[in-house]
Amino acid sequence: MWIDTHCHLDAAEFDADRDAVREAARQVGVTRCVIPAVHAGHWPQVAQLAERHGDAYALGIHPLFVPQAQEADVKALEQALTERRDDPRLVAVGEIGLDFFVPELCTPDMRERQWFFYTAQLKLAQQHGLPVILHVRRSADLLLKGLRQCPVVSGIAHAFNGSQQQAQAFVDLGFVLGFGGTLTYERSLQLRRLACELPLSALVLETDAPDIPPQWLYQTAEQRALGAVQGRNSPAELPRIAQVLADLRGVSLVELAAVSTTNACRILPKLADCLTKL
Question: 2-277: which CATH architecture?
Answer without folding.
Answer: Alpha-Beta Barrel (3.20)
